[in-house]
User: Fold Pilus formation protein N-terminal domain-containing protein from Algimonas arctica.
Amino acid sequence: MRRSTYIRSFVKQSSLMIGASLLCVAGFAGSAHATDPIYQVDLNKTQILRLPAAAGSVIIGNPSIADVTVHSPTTIMVVGRGFGETNLIVLDRDGQTMVDADIQVTSITPSNGVRLFNGTSRQTYSCAPYCQPSPVLGDSPEHISANSPQVSSSNAPSAIFDQGPVSTSGLTGGPQGNSAFDGMPAIPN
Assistant:
């Protein structure tokens, strides 16, 4: 009888210790990324990100997944260019990190659109009010190439239509011309 009591006690304590260990590990792993913001951007859509202070540098991990356009020292625009995840880092003028975030680019069916699947082949159409081809990343190569004039313009780099002055770093400072980037050395090509 003593032996069975000992085994039950050992199994019970071992189970509790393993459970507590797993909770600690899971809690630690979750807290490592709990404070990192994650921004979700739809493919070929733009999200506006307002910064708490003027940016000194804006770095995007993989520009083929997301593109960043600096609108003003405190406003940047993030455009989804391809499926996947990358990161965005924004530093202030002193080089301190203001934003360190993950960017997830996903695709949704347009609100007035449909996706047709034929085996592994996919085609996307926009139906407003009549359905027209609207190829996106992930559609069949034949569908994309047959409708390439519509796709080529969406792959062009973003443009800034702001007529504000340009600082030495090549970033626009907005209509007032009080750029946070003025006086910073230009990045060599």
User: Anything to note?
Assistant: The beta strands are 38-42, 46-50, 57-60, 66-72, 75-80, 84-91, 97-106, 113-118, 121-127, 131-133. The longest strand covers residues 97-106.
